[in-house]
Design goal:
Radius of gyration: 18 Å
Helix content: 55-70%
Structural class: mainly alpha
Largest sheet: none
C-alpha cells in the first residue's frame, strides 16, 4: 500500500483513496492473528510523512487516519496528531480541505497551540467561509467561555450570515 501512495505516477485521487484504507490495514496488522505485525511501524511512519503532503488531499486524509488510530493505539501519540495539525494549518501552501480538517481535529483533540491562528482565521475576511466557520468552532472548543466576547465582536464585524449563525451556535454551546 505504501508503494502505491509513494508512486507519483499514480493518480492523486487513487493515492488518497489508498491512504484512507490504511486505517483498516493497520488494524489488521495489529491483530494477533495477522502475520505482518512488524509492518505497522512502517505504516505509521508513512502516515506521518503523508501528513506533510499539503498540496493535495492526501495530507488531510492521512491526518484523519492518524487521529483515528491514535485513539486506539498508544504508539500513535496525541503529540504526533498535534504535529500533523500544526503542519497542515501553518503551511501557507496547504489546500483548504487540509486546513479545514486540521482545524476540526485541533478543536476536537484540544490542540491549544493553534488557538491564536484559529482566532486570526476566524476574523480574516480573506479566508474561505468554510475555514472561518471551522475556526470559530475551534476557538469555542479551545477557549470555552473566554471566547464569548471575541466571538460576539466577530458577529458584529462580519458580513456573512452563515458565519454569524455559527458564532451564535458556538456561543450557545460554550455557555451551557
Amino acid at each position: 500500500m505504501v508503494d502505491m501512495v509513494d508512486n507519483p505516477s499514480q493518480d492523486e485521487q487513487w493515492r488518497e483513496y489508498v491512504v484512507q484504507h490504511f486505517r483498516g490495514y493497520y488494524d489488521r496488522l495489529k491483530s494477533d492473528s495477522w502475520a505482518g505485525q512488524n509492518e505497522a511501524p512502517l505504516l505509521k511512519e508513512a502516515l506521518l510523512r503523508y501528513v506533510r503532503e499539503v498540496d493535495n488531499a492526501i495530507g488531510g486524509s492521512a491526518l484523519l487516519v492518524l487521529d483515528d488510530l491514535g485513539e486506539r493505539y498508544s504508539e500513535i501519540s496525541s503529540e504526533m496528531v498535534a504535529q500533523g495539525v500544526v503542519a497542515l494549518l501553518t503551511d501557507e501552501t496547504s489546500v483548504e480541505g487540509n486546513r479545514v480538517t486540521a482545524m476540526q481535529i485541533a478543536g476536537i483533540r484540544d490542540v491549544r497551540e493553534v488557538l491564536p491562528l484559529a482566532q486570526e482565521i476566524a476574523a480574516d475576511e480573506s479566508e474561505s467561509i468554510a475555514l472561518r466557520m471551522t475556526a470559530v468552532a475551534t476557538v469555542g472548543s479551545l477557549q470555552g467561555v473566554g471566547a464569548t466576547t471575541a466571538l460576539r465582536e466577530l458577529v458584529t464585524n462580519t458580513g456573512s450570515d452563515s458565519l454569524r449563525q455559527v458564532v451564535a451556535r458556538t456561543i450557545e454551546r460554550i455557555q451551557r
